[in-house]
Amino acid sequence: MDLYLEQLPHQQAAIAAVLQAMRGCRDFDDFRHPDYKNAYANPLIQLQSSSLNAIKLPESLGGSGIDVKMETGTGKTYVYTRLMYELNQQFGLNKFIIFVPSLAIKEGTKSFIKADYAKQHFSEVYGNTKIDLDVIDAGSFSIKNGRKTMSSELVDYLEGSRNERNTIKALLLNDAMLTSKSMTRNDYDQTLIGSTSCPVEGLKLTRPIVIIDEPHRFKKGGKAFRAIKDLQPQLIIRFGATFPEVSQGHGRSKAAAKDYENLVYNLGSVEAFNNGLVKAVDIHFPEIGEKEIAETTRYKVVEIKSVGSKYVRFKRIGSDKTYDIKVNDSLSVIDESFEGDVELAEIKNADLAVLSNDLELHKGSILIPDIFSASYQELMVKQAIDKHFIKERENWFRTNNVNAPRIKTLSLFFIDSIPSYRDDDGWLKQVFEKLLSEKLKTEIAREPDEEYKDFLEQSLARIGETHGGYFAEDNGIGDEAVQKEVDDILRNKSKLLMFKQNAQWSLRRFLFSKWTLREGWDNPNVFVITKLRTSGSESSKIQEVGRGLRLPVDENGKRLSSTEFRLDYIIDWSERDFADKLVGEINTDSGVLEKVTPSIYEKLIEVGFGPNEKKVKARLLIEDIIDENDKIIDIDKLLAILPADAVPMVRKSKVTSNGSNKTARIKLRKENWDKIKDSWKDVTKRYMIQFERVNDNEIEKIVEKVIVDKNFVIPRIGIRTLRLSANDDDVSVEEAVDMSEKTSGRSIDYGDFLRRLAKRTSVSARMWHSIIKSRFGDGLNKQTLNFQTIERITSHFRGEFEVLFAEKYSYTPLNYMTSTSV
């Protein structure tokens, strides 16, 4: 299956912005120049006014590089691939080096540039010109029998000549490869251009144009970026959704800022989401009630010791007991509910430790063991499978366009324990196949469409082919089945999008990975992402959902943009504020929410916040809304002052969230206070409420009323769906809760059950036991001894108690008044 590439306006605008930044440049190849005979190097790019021997970038670039910011899923790889064609056509440049930070990105870039559909697309625009891509891998160099053999891919790239008029030479390698000994040693048994035997020196002689993908992984002070600069490239062009940060200012005014180098194009998150360039996002998580969380066991990080005998000290909340966990220790020694072999992986400093699932721990962090439990994870897997088949049915039948080609639906799971999926007896593999089998049987039984029913039946019969995994540890493994999965996920993007291959259904559509795929890899038809177990750091939330943001393609390979598509992102309860953070990150990405800009000052003057910019700034400083450098300190205060359309915000419908439901702050005018202060003094007088005693017989009758079958339940966990909705002005959050999911959960032993009832109701455990024994005898179902049953009983008890107590109190006024501040 070939993908159909289009010339999209936002991608053409990015290319035009780079070319505009280079206006005034020309290639210079005068025979008088010392490098005239070096046909293996790029021509010099210069300003018309520059001297013959100067290698100078346009003055608008400050002699450095160019940055292009494009949101995840909007086609950065397409843009920088096409840009190579344009720079070759306009400036004669034909030596490019593409640097990427990971194997996943490397494979994605390689697959795209070498794909037949990409070559066909670019040939329609640039005729016979082609890109000859060489890829350097760890095995490209060899040392055998004392001979040190150079990478043939490197030699091919270096020896590419400008005399090959229709050929662009591109070299692809990752940062670790550039800084490896293989690239920096100079004792190979052959020489390169310029008679050097050092790969890096050979690259330097080509006067390359460097393209950096994912620049936030190439910080300027880092080893990789320094190695890139050592190549003395004529120009560095960085493409990314995220750029590294640097500190600016000193003392109190010190702040983080994006480390841009001549940002010539900025396709931000707000524009990408609002204009439908990426999928919208719905966040889901299995709900846990606040009262249940208060009842359950939790552990707080109270100390991270990073020197000497390193450990992280956890304290059980509500207890004085502490636990010291060292690197490689399993958290299960603290609590058996920490299932899945979660270990302490690293202690970085006195305020940062990292678990084996990439969760960052800081002093004060709180962990909830139940979220790590197998039963909770099983519920998340079930929710993911249910969501998948809702999407699959929509995409198969395309009800909004009955005759439209189908869309293959993919789901992606991020997991922390590889053996749980790879091992034949791994709990995740077993649970997934069990739940998938059950779901397939249900879907088959109700499906009238013969073709889709056959697809489902084949999925059930060949269930092992429906899923596959990719993990960094898979590289080099000889298992053919594993390598087939890796190839499908990492390299054969188009194969995953096909419904049939060789007249057989192509069934793989459930993908499993660790955070290896968190950047660079994506597939346009990922519609469901499930993040099993609390994992990941406080890094970009857009990067986390980015694996599924790209707009889908149909079975003919055509990109679809006329319909809104949504990504379902499933997380656990501890990350329930994910949607709010995502919305905040999208809105902050517009740039205007970081600092008060001249346009915002103008808006503030318009609404009467001050007569001029100077006085507006003074008032913002006094009210602690900004600092001296115009950096926004309190965004909520600022947005409350500004009109709704003053800053670009993501539309409410683009991401769903339960929101924070903040209470509005109301200001009371002094003249109004003068009108009500006498009444206020009356209503703020203090009284003593005096209650009559309730006797034991009355309490026992209440207990008998609440010990009934309907209060003893097997718990249901609600799945909360958070949908970000937007209009042209602002963003809000809609939510829905589905309480249909039943789970056995974690039951409580009978003694603990009675103690908790006694604590919640102040009724003795002895009385509760007596009534329960009288009601159920030996027929009490132990699965009903859980937190939800306690909640039902105590709530029922409280209601009955209040009815009884309604007539048993009186008030006595006191000679005391509360103080009031206005």
Provide the gyration radius in Å: 32 Å
List segments where confidence is low: pLDDT < 50 over at least 5 consecutive residues: 47-63, 657-664
| Oligomeric form | single chain
Strand arrangement, major sheet: 23-26-22-27-28-14-30-31
User: Could you give the distance between the termini?
Assistant: 70 Å
Shape, please? globular
The biggest beta sheet is recorded as: 8 strands, mixed
Average of per-residue pLDDT values: 82
Quickly count the helices: 27
Helical amount among residues, as a percent range? 25-40%
Characterization of the model:
The protein has 822 residues and is of the alpha/beta class. Helix content is 34%, strand content 20%. The chain has 27 helices and 32 strands. Strands 23-26-22-27-28-14-30-31 form an 8-stranded mixed sheet, with helices on both faces. The protein has a 7-stranded parallel sheet with strand order 5-8-4-9-10-3-13, sandwiched between helices. A 4-stranded antiparallel sheet has the order 17-16-15-21, with no helix packed on it. The longest helix is centred in the middle third of the chain and has 24 residues, at 374-397. The chain is globular. Residues 47-63 and 657-664 have low confidence and may be disordered.
Main attributes?
single chain, about 800 residues, alpha/beta, 8-stranded mixed β-sheet, 7-stranded parallel β-sheet, 32 strands
